[in-house]
Each structure stands twice: as C-alpha cells, then as structure tokens.
Amino acid sequence: GVTISEPGDFAPTAEERWVRLFISGMTLTFGLAGALMVPAGQFSDPMSIAVLLASVTTVPVAIAWYLRPWASPRMAIVYILYADVGIVTVLFAFQTHFDAMPGCAMFSIVAAFIVVASSHRVMLIHLAIGALTLAGLAALAVSEGADPWSTTSRMVTIGSLYAAPFMIKSYIGQLRTSAA
User: Fold this and answer.
1) Dihedral (C-alpha) 79, 24, 65, 74: value to the nearest 10 degrees?
2) DSSP secondary structure letters along 71-135
3) Is residue 80 a contact partner of residue 118, using CB atoms and an 8 Å limit?
4) How far apart are CA 24 and CA 45, in angstroms?
5) What is the mean pLDDT of residues 91-95?
6) CB neighbourhood size of 158 (10 A)
7) pLDDT band at residue 166 using 50, 70 and 90 as cut-offs
8) What is the rounded average pLDDT of the residues 60-67?
9) How far apart are CA 74 and CA 117, in angstroms?
10) How confident is the model at residue 68 (pLDDT cuts 50, 70, 90)?
C-alpha cells in the first residue's frame, strides 16, 4: 500500500524560502482575483466592499507567510479555513453564479498546500467543501437560466481538478516509502 503523509512530515521543505514565497504569492493572487472582479460588476455595491475588504486581508497574510518560518500544523489548518471561508464567501457573492464556477479551481490550489502542510483527512474535508460549493454554484446557475449542458460541462472540468492533489499526496507517500 501507499503511505499517506501525516501533518508535519514535510515541514522542512516548507521552511524553504521559495516555498514560503510561493504560498505568499498564491495568497496575494487570490486577493487580486477577487479585487479584479469588483470593477467587472460581479457584485452588488455592499458585496463589492466586502470582497475588497476580504482581498485586502490577503496582504498581511501573504507578508506573514513570506517573513515567518513554517507555521505549526494547527496554524496550517487556520490558514486552510481562512482560504476556504474566503473562497466560498466570494464565489457565492457573485451575481452570476455560472461566472463564479471557475473560481472553484482555487480549492485545488489550496489543496496543493494541504499536500505539504496537513493530513489526508483535512484534504478530504477541504475538497468536499470545494465539491459542495461547485455543485451549489452549478445548481444556482441553472436556476438562473444558464444552459444545463454548459454548466455540467464546466462542473465536470473544474471538479476533475480535485483529483490531482490526491494523486500527488499518494505519489509523495510512495516516494517516502521507497526512500525508507
């Protein structure tokens, strides 16, 4: 069988500056993606303010990731929760839920962090949240008049991204077993 990593197994890798820079950059990218949707008219006025405020929170979080050494497994879970709440909140705030669906790809990016920083169980919970969000957005999109075939195609395409983190985590576990 393939050994699945446990939290902290890869902490030395994540202490490396380039990994922290990557996590920091992805955090800023998420904030930028949200902020860029505001002038596109995707949110009501009150939600535009909320999305901009959420986007601004990514700056101190990104700086902390860049400057600080590797966080504890508990802080990794807090970061994952922060990302999930932000992603779900912003995506459901879209006025056109079909247009929000591609944002669910962000769950896959956060899952790449989980591969390194947390457990298989945390990844399962995280990707279940991603799948439920994607299904909810798809249902809302169809109820708003989006073509059911296009919506389902988009859901299948984006949902397939959720398999990659499992393959990567299993592969890393297999490499660790082979190296032992």
Assistant:
1) 20
2) PPHHHHHHHHHHHHHHHHHHHHH-SSHHHHGGGGHHHHHHHHHHHHHS-HHHHHHHHHHHHHHHH
3) yes
4) 29
5) 95
6) 21
7) confident
8) 87
9) 10
10) confident
More confident residue, 69 or 175: 175
Count, residues in the chain? 180
Mean of pLDDT values over 100-113: 93
SS3 40: coil
Using CB atoms within 10 Å of the CB of residue 115, give its burial: 0 to 12 exposed, 13 to 18 middle, 19+ buried. buried
Task: Identify the residue whose tokens are 């919970």.
Answer: 125
Kindly tell me the sign of the dihedral angle through the C-alpha atoms of 94, 98, 99, 104.
Answer: positive
pTM here is 0.84
